[in-house]
Design a protein that fits this description.
EC 6.1.1.20; binds phenylalanine; cytoplasm; aa-tRNA-synth_II/BPL/LPL; alpha+beta; 11 helices; Phe-tRNA-synth_IIc_asu; ligase; BirA Bifunctional Protein, domain 2
Length: 339
């Protein structure tokens, strides 16, 4: 048996050496190693050997197979080099194809702009968790359990969480979180993603970006709030804008103020984008409620502050002239490649 194996290997090696094309090599491979090749046929006879001799013969047969495979591989490389022309001539001086290049998402680009503007006004930029304790999202912001105001924020609750977790419905929870580690004076912004259980349409998404702002110091007044936001809007849009303020209710501020900006598209005359009113709602804001100041560990007798929540998506849409929020989150390259 072992003698026969040796014969096969010698014969096969000689044939491999004589193969001058890959085609021929393949035929040799078939002849010796293919399903009905000489080596497999011999292997088949292993079972008829006396049991004592089987292991050694089996091992030798395996070695023979490996030897042949290696020989074939080496010859394959050789005949390839010598006899086969490359499929096409390659002109190495030809300029390469341009690779498609990605870029930042328009929201990211716009957010960087927003951060830059606030940074230049002396604001610190903070982060907070997207999965939030109800304590921060509601309770400490003066929105007690069972208060009807909770309904305003259509909340995603995290099922089965012992700690009463929600997906934060606004960036306001970071107001209190930030003050746990700071003392006034503070000036912070918190850009980030928020979530609401809402039906989506051209101006509503269940997931969007806000930028929270908080200023706490001695003697902070409503005019500081209005001035700061007007300044921010003018810097953002690089033109003089008119704003108007309206009273609005948010449990964590008193008074609560919504700030509208004269419509950038029609200049205030009225158009479909501003629903013919000439104004666009940009910011929810107000003076921090004394109860919330207390929750922040700040004495409302000594300090006052203002807070605001900017709708980043809406600002971004106005800035670039996009008319449907859903485009932002569509991942559609026809949209994204325009930025
Ligand atoms: N958190 C509010 C909202 O999402 C916006 C807001 C922030 C209002 C800060 C007042 C002060 O609607």
């Amino acid at each position: 048996m072992i003698e026969k194996l040796k014969n096969i290997v010698d014969k096969a090696k000689a044939d491999i050496g004589k193969a001058h094309t890959r085609e021929e090599l393949l035929q040799v491979q078939q002849r010796y190693l293919g399903r009905k090749g000489e080596l497999p046929i011999l292997l088949h006879k292993l079972s008829s050997l006396p049991e004592r001799e089987r292991p050694e013969a089996g091992q030798k047969a395996n070695e023979a197979k490996q030897t042949l495979l290696r020989a074939i591989e080496e010859q394959h490389a050789l005949v390839g080099e010598k006899n086969e022309k490359p499929a096409e001539e390659i002109d190495v001086t030809w300029p390469g194809d341009e690779m498609p290049r990605g870029h930042l998402h328009p929201i990211t680009q716009f957010l960087r702009r927003v951060k830059g503007i606030f940074y230049s006004m002396g604001f610190e930029i903070l982060d907070g968790p997207e999965v939030e304790l109800q304590k921060y999202n509601f309770d400490l912001l003066n929105i007690p359990k069972d208060h009807p105001a909770r309904d305003v924020w259509d909340t995603f609750f995290v099922r089965g969480s012992k700690e009463d977790l929600v997906l934060r419905t606004h960036t306001s929870p970071v107001q209190v979180r930030a003050m746990e580690k700071r003392k006034p004076p503070v000036r912070i912004i918190v850009p980030g993603r928020v979530f609401r259980h809402e039906a989506t349409d051209a101006s509503h998404e269940a997931e969007f970006y806000q930028c929270e702002g908080l200023v706490v110091d001695k003697g902070i007044r409503v005019t500081d709030l209005i001035g700061t936001l007007k300044m921010f809007l003018q810097e953002t849009f690089e033109k003089k804008v008119r704003i108007r303020v309206r009273p609005e209710f948010y449990p964590f501020v008193e008074p609560g103020i919504d700030i509208d900006m004269s419509c950038l598209l029609c200049g205030g005359k009225g158009c479909p984008a501003c629903k013919q009113s000439g104004w666009m709602e940009m910011v929810g804001s107000g003076m921090v409620h004394p109860k919330v100041l207390k929750n922040m560990g700040v004495d409302p007798q000594v300090y006052s502050g203002f807070a605001f929540g900017l709708g980043i998506d809406r600002l971004m849409m106005l800035y670039y002239g996009v008319d449907d929020v859903r485009l932002s989150y569509s991942g559609d390259l026809r949209f994204l490649e325009q930025f």
